[in-house]
Give the backbone structure.
Amino acid sequence: MNVHNLDCIFKPERIALVGVSTNPNSVGGKVLTNLVGSGYRGVVYPINPRHEAVMAMPCFPDLESLPRCPDLAVICTPAHEVADHVAACGAAGIPGLIIMSSGFRETGEEGRRREEIILEHKARFPEMRIIGPNCLGVIVPELKLNVSFAPHTPKKGHLAFISQSGALGTSVLDWAREENIGFSSFVSIGNAIDVDYGHLIDYFGDDEKTRSILLYVESIAEPRKFMTASRAFARGKPIIVYKAGRFPESAAVAASHTGAMAAADDVYNAAFRRSGLARVFDIGEIFDCAELIARNKIPRGSRLGIVTNAGGPGVMATDALVAANGSLAELSNETMAALDEQLPPQWSHGNPVDILGDARSKRLARAVRAVAADPGVDAVLVILTPQAMTNPTRAAQAVAEIQEETRKPILASWLGGYLMREGESWLNEKGIPTYKTPEQAVRAFMTLVEYARNLETLYETPRDIPVEFSLDRKKIKREFLAGLALDGRVLSEIQSKQLLQAYGIPVTLPVAAPDLDTALKAAREIGYPVVFKVNSPDITHKSDVGGVVLDIRDDGGAADAFHAITRSATEMQPEARLEGVTVQKMAALPDALEMILGIKKDPVFGTVILVGAGGVTAELFADRSLGFPPLNERLARRMLEDLKIWPLLRGYRGKPPVDLDRMIEAMIRLSYLAADSPEILELDINPLLAGSGGILAVDARIVIDPDVKADPAEPYAHLALHPYPEEYVSEGVEMDGHTIVFRPIKPEDEARWMEMLASCSRESIYSRFRYFFQWASHEVATRYCYIDYHREIAIVAETTGEDGEKRLIGVGRLIADPEHETVEYAILIIDEFQNRDLGGLLTDYCLDIARKWGLRKVVAQTTADNHRMLALFKKRGFTIHTDSRTSTVDVEKDLTTAE
Ligand code: ADP
Ligand code: MG
């Protein structure tokens, strides 16, 4: 399939070079030399009106004079001429363009205008695809296609490399040569005015030559496309990303703790994580990581076993490991016994396994083998220092052998220089990465651990947490937001908590008390002990001005507190408008931790959720993790697990654990609020008290962007991920005494989905999947239940039994192509419900959704003997093509014509 029409760029047969020059050192000259010198088998047309020939090749004056239309035009002219050439290429019907010239956005306003003009021309030729401008070009080693000014064509292989920066791209390629790494394609996207990461990930995702993708990212312009494409690809093939560090652009203007704590780079990190990518932080790690992943050497957990012939480096590695949140594996009794038997009595008797300086390679190999075999060890780091008795090369050979016997990754650090070099080559040859220091090795290990967890998060089935929304969210919002317009940007604690409460998050709701009498009355009504806080639209940090008095136990205390607060606030912030105090219940959650839970709108990725250690020191410790709404149980939990305070949440040294279910529920509820509210710029619950007895929001603040109005046509434009499409949940229909609801599938459905398949006959399964589909594994099931609603939707038919148990009795699935034009449709109905036209109803429901999505065509497949399906499709006006050899029947229907 020609995904996004990109074949013209990666598989061209004829290439026009616009702007070649007789100077072999110019961009155009270099590209021509590379193209011709690399052995490309297609046709190259140099174009330059001023020359008859360049480098002994005949030159054409312009595009019109070419004997045939090229698939690809490469433009290397000065920037101001580019737009005209783009228009000419479009007019000549050339489908692919690579603009290598620089002098665009990267140079300022004039350059930006040039890009706009190009895009205006491009708009007239919607099929035309453009790479660049300001890019290094494209290399496809297998076709010996080198349209770039990179001096060497890399080896052919299975890694696709997409780089934003040209310069970095070439150095990575150069390095790859040294490391003997091959590529399926290299593409430098430059300013990416048209073709971007998302398109390329889709393209390489479909390319059978590509087994993994490497991304060099500086910034991402279209996060939705990026995340959708990556999530689709990462399921089958790994993506490794290196993101150049950026400054925390927006932190300075933040008006809340959440705003200040969610720096741009953290948001990128969260996006990579949610897409199942492996992020490396050191360019040097890229290939090692790619290699280990390609060999499927992915650790199952973060427990590292360390084997060393010297104590010091073992300690260094341990420190680095602990600092990076990894864990030192605890060796089992069997492993300890095996090591006792094989090692001299002075060995370290624990992990790191110090096998002592006089160890020869045999002893090293025995120790590594024993540690690698321990079920409590996820990976092994072998550290060797030069010692009189040790031959580093022989040691390397011994360790290299073990690597073939185990699934677990083995990493090595042969500490030293010259003496170690031969050993390192041995290790590398066998696919064991070597690191100059134990710290670097540990960092690489942690990258793999992160990657494994990211993939797991992509797959893991969330528990059905009972977040019951009996609330009318639309109504809450309407009423609530109507009241806001009057009050400006920053909502008061009272208003903020009202909204949170409406979403089912427990709060201590304050009452406003402009004077002491009202305050006393409120305190008695609420019931002592209470809390008074200064009430002023101008004071954001209430305790900073002595504006919070806790644990007020009686009227006397209340009067004192009232006076103290007004006095102190007037003194410390005389210009602030004071409106008395607010009165609320003093939270009674013994041993509770102070957490922060918030929402922030990121300029690139849209709304994100933050959770972390809260209270007044929140920003100081900066212990937080970010996630994208919508959250489910699994994702919320993962955010908590990533916190440094996770051990405290789980219960630490005799303290009871926090009620995690309630905490997770609050996060999920907040993520619904975030998804519903594009106008929320920042939201801070700080602190959210989290204890064993539940959770409670005791302070909250919301900042509204008055210019944002929710767009009913695109209610989720502020989100990088499409939330559960609730709009496709149907009313119940009656059928033979069952009430059937159609609704989109969700990850929580996994067990029900499996039950449904289990209740189908072999024939039904065969006619749905056209082979005897092996569905009974978590991996497969999650693929069908955990979907990206931007691209795919599965509608299940659900009934509720007398016992209240829900059951799936059928599913119809729509999978759109990356272009969002054609959609594939497939349907399965359990045997018991066949022959009752459930299939027809479900199909109509799905086709309706396909139309709402704006898709143009629906295709499906069935077998010639499946008369019921054929009748169903015929009745709905599908055209039917039977392949008599395979007895497969392809059906399709145009969705653009009126019914
Ligand atoms: P600030 O504007 O300074 O953030 P807060 O409302 O967060 O003011 O109050 C400061 C601190 O007082 C909180 O961090 C929390 O520890 C405590 N606190 C506030 N409200 C309550 C309450 N209702 N019950 C118990 N403690 C509270
Ligand atoms: Mg606070």
